[in-house]
Amino acid sequence: MATTERAAMTTPTATLPAAARTRRPGAPEPGLSWGARTGPVLAVTLAVLVLWYLAAIGLNAPGAIERVLGGPDGTWSATQLVQTTWAMQRPILPVPHQIALDIWHSVRDWPIDSPRNLLLHARTTAEATLLGFGLGTALGLLLAIGIVHARTLEKALLPWIVASQTVPVLAIAPIVLVVLGSLGFTGTLPKAVIAMYLCFFPVTVAMVQGLRSPQRIETELFHTYAASRWQALWALRLPASLPHLFPALRVAIAAGLVGAIVAELPTGAQAGLGARLLTSSYYGNTVQIWSALLMSAVLGLALTALVGLLERSVLRRHSPAAQGKLKS
Predict the structure, then answer these.
(1) Taking Cα atoms as reference points, which of 199, 198, 194 lies closest to residue 174?
(2) What's the distance, Cα to Cα, between the start and end of the chain in Å?
(3) Quick one: the chain helix, strand, coil %, rounded to 5?
(4) Distance from C-alpha of 263 to C-alpha of 272, rounded to nearest angstrom
(5) Does the pTM of the predicted model rise above 0.70?
(6) Are 245 and 207 in contact (CB under 8 A)?
(7) What pLDDT does 35 receive?
(8) Any idea what DSSP says for residue 92?
(9) What is the sign, positive or negative, of the torsion defined by CA atoms of 202, 185, 278, 169?
């Protein structure tokens, strides 16, 4: 009887395919094809594009009829109306192919150091974002470590940390820029400080939770071995906090990009995606406005993907299998 029950318990695992038994957590299921994974994404993208083109016809039609087709009493067909709304130089809503062509000509037709090249603006914004992200991550880690190890700091700092995020970044950015400018700090650093202001909060909150995630039996074991607070932090709390840290870093770097772009708006900067947005709005060039917005989205995806690569690399090294190989 016991042999039969043991066989029944082990049969499901034994009969699983080898790919299912060796599949890493979070990896795609073996039976799920590439089309099944990408089909929903492509369907949503196609629906968004169709709605975008239809919306462009509706929003651009009054201007196209008035300025291009000769007014409501002119002779024009529906095909001419559609073609005109999709080819206006200053439309209310540019269509995707206009935005793509503007980005292509900006990158191809102008040198990399030209203010007309979007790559220059993306690089300038990325530098401020990465610097602010580094400063915000370091500040968040230090605050979280202090809060976890000192109950007084938790009561004194945590309410102010939460309250700091109730101030709109559009209101605080000019103040910070003016103060730092009066102290002689210009260029990338003031923008990085605004990015840091948005970055440190998710890192702090996530790391406080992550550093407190070890179970009581684990912390007591370190006390049994007379481990110092630094040893417990380095060997127990920090590794346990990694699953909490990296999702916060992805949020932080996206927020830092928003802060860097916002910081470029009131400074009259000559480079940066925020400066490109401001200049394009002055001249009413909606195509360039949308091009800068799309480049900002692409830059945000690239920076988030960079954090994702770092996450996979770090978690792979700290996985139980990797630690077992290192010990052997």
Answers:
(1) 194
(2) 40
(3) 75, 0, 25
(4) 10
(5) yes
(6) yes
(7) 66
(8) S
(9) positive
Query: Taking a C-beta distance cutoff of 8 angstroms, is the pair 144, 213 a contact?
Result: no
Neighbours of 147 (CB within 10 A): 23
Q: Who's near 207: CB < 8 A, 6+ residues apart? A: 140, 141, 144, 145, 241, 244, 245, 248
Contact 106, 273 (CB under 8 A): no
Q: In whole angstroms, what is the distance from residue 57 CA to residue 121 CA?
A: 30
DSSP-derived secondary structure letter, 272: S
* Structure-block tokens of residue 253: 């770097």
- In the chain the domains, ranked by start, together with CATH numbers, are 123-315 (1.10.3720.10)
- Measured on CA atoms in the order 254, 168, 267, 274, is the torsion positive or negative? positive
* Nearest C-alpha neighbor of 270 from the set 192, 207, 187, 326: 187
DSSP-assigned letters across all residues of 26-82: TSPPTT--HHHHHHHHHHHHHHHHHHHHHHHHHHHHHHHHHHTS-STTS---HHHHH
Cβ 84 vs Cβ 74: under 8 Å: no
Give the residue from 98, 102, 104, 99 showing the smallest Cα distance to 86: 98
Three-class SS of residue 94? Answer: coil
In this predicted structure, what is the pLDDT of residue 57? 93
In degrees rounded to 5, what are phi and psi of residue 12? -55, -45
Instruction: Give average pLDDT by consecutive 10-residue segment, the chain, 328 residues.
Output: 43 43 47 70 91 93 85 78 90 93 91 88 93 94 88 84 85 84 83 92 91 76 71 78 90 93 76 88 89 93 93 76 42
- Measuring CA to CA, which residue among 246, 255, 265, 245 is closest to residue 300? 255
Nearest CA to 196 out of 143, 132, 138 is that of 132
Spatial separation of the C-alpha atoms in residues 317 and 312, rounded to whole Å: 9
Question: For position 103, what pLDDT does the model report?
Answer: 93
- Sign of the torsion angle spanned by Cα atoms 148, 252, 272, 270: negative
Residues 6+ apart with CB under 8 A from 140: 199, 200, 201, 202, 203, 204, 207, 248, 252
